[in-house]
Write a structure and sequence with these properties.
The protein is an alpha/beta fold. The chain folds into two domains: about 220 residues, Glycogen Phosphorylase B (Rossmann fold, 3-Layer(aba) Sandwich); about 170 residues, Glycogen Phosphorylase B (Rossmann fold), CATH 3.40.50. The protein is built from 16 helices and 13 strands. The chain has a seven-stranded parallel beta sheet, sandwiched between helices. The protein has a six-stranded parallel beta sheet with strand order 10-9-8-11-12-13, sandwiched between helices. Helix 5 runs antiparallel to helix 6. About 45% of the residues are buried.
């Protein structure tokens, strides 16, 4: 089959959770099908060259400006949609679909649904990385400033209405977790065929040699720090969750790594006792080997956490919250430890830092889970099934 793959960013060098999943999906599709790709790129980035299939990359400037906000209100769409609007992208996709005659369009994320031509004649598949409206609702609940909370709640309503409006355009919608599946079905406009395609970790992590317990009591939080759920959760953990751990284990250290950290978060990490800001990290292996425990302190969000899957794949024990374990096929106490919220993670983290047998048990069980459940051949089985059924349908 010939597939058109629409994705909001280049995924030839995946670093964030979303790009890791998107890159894995593209690689999975390329095994058995001819795939053309259309993606956005930064204005100063080179075009993306792929060895197979046609590739279109369109430059875009995604400013969070007052002008874009005003334009989004005028157009009646969420700000995220307005920031990803491009006449050039629509023109390029119309050319691709006219010239290449695709059997299937795989729309990777809600941002790209607006770019699929209304008259596309093939099968339409949508992959939702999150139930977007749920993520915005949770974001609003975390806001402490009244005016900003009101603004975010209003935006959550706009996201909900827009997300509902695009679902009916697709024969099949894929989500990353069962909670997200239920959330989309609650909108009332989702197609009957809503299936789960779990997130997967960076596939290379599970192939590395097993770790040994690090000698020092080091916690690691490694994530995209520009994402508000990560930044908010880390701020709370540094202020309220980490100090109780220091009372138990005075030599404990928290290493914070990742790109896009706001200046205020950097300053907080640099002045907090026992916290080390490592900044963007090109060598993730050095971080994993130095740490004895991965802590997922993010709050809010939706879907499931690729950073948790990455740590499990590497064999590094994980302490997270109920939100962090949401949507993952994990058993608390067997694959990872779960606290009520970031502020109460000191107890479980202390156990991992000091209990050798627990460390080994969690490391082995987490890695085995990834190899059994979170490899593309297993995680993406529903996608393969849908494509086989569509391929077997007689043409009209």
């Amino acid at each position: 089959m010939r597939i058109l793959f629409l994705t909001p960013r280049r995924i030839d060098d995946p670093r964030s959770g979303g790009t890791i999943k998107s890159a894995a999906l593209l690689s999975f599709l390329e095994r058995d099908h001819e795939v053309d790709v259309a993606a956005f790129r930064a204005p100063d980035a080179d075009p993306w060259q792929r060895p197979n299939g046609e590739t279109v990359t369109v430059p875009i400037e995604r400013g969070r400006t007052g002008m874009n906000l005003a334009r989004s209100y005028a157009a009646g769409v969420p700000l995220s949609i307005q920031r990803n609007r491009s006449r050039e992208m629509r023109s390029q996709i119309e050319r691709l679909t006219a010239d290449r005659h695709h059997d299937v369009a795989f729309v990777d994320g809600w941002l790209m649904a607006q770019d699929l031509p209304e008259d596309f004649p093939g099968i339409r598949l949508l992959h939702e990385h999150n139930a977007e409206y749920v993520m915005w609702q949770r974001h609003a609940a975390l806001e402490t400033r009244r005016a900003r909370r009101t603004l975010v709640r209003f935006e959550a309503g706009r996201v909900r209405r827009y997300e509902r409006s695009i679902l009916e355009r697709f024969e099949t919608v894929f989500v990353v977790s069962e909670p997200d599946r239920r959330a989309l079905l609650e909108l009332g406009e989702a197609p009957e065929d809503v299936r789960v395609l779990p997130n997967v970790p960076d596939p290379e992590l599970a192939e590395r040699p097993s770790l040994n317990p690090a000698p020092d009591p080091v916690l690691l939080f490694f994530a995209t720090l520009s994402w508000p759920p990560n930044a908010e959760g880390l701020t709370r953990f540094i202020a309220e969750g980490f100090p109780p751990l220091l009372e138990r284990i005075p030599k404990a250290r928290l290493v914070v790594a990742g790109s896009g950290a706001p200046d205020a978060l950097i300053r907080l990490a640099q002045r907090a006792r026992g916290v080390e800001y490592a900044g963007p990290a090109d060598d993730d292996e050095r971080l994993y080997r130095r740490a004895r425990c991965f802590v997922d302190v993010a709050v809010g969000g939706s879907g499931s956490r690729v950073k948790v899957l990455n740590a499990l794949a590497r064999g590094l024990p994980v302490v997270t919250t109920g939100e962090g374990a949401e949507g993952l096929d994990v058993l608390p106490g067997e694959h990872l430890l779960v606290a009520d919220r970031p502020e109460t993670m000191a107890g479980p983290a202390a156990r991992v830092l000091t209990d050798e047998a627990l460390w080994t048990s969690l490391a082995n069980a987490g890695r085995a889970l990834i190899r059994d459940r979170y490899v593309p051949e297993v995680a993406f089985a529903e996608l393969a099934t849908v494509l086989r059924v569509d391929q077997a349908r007689p043409s009209s």
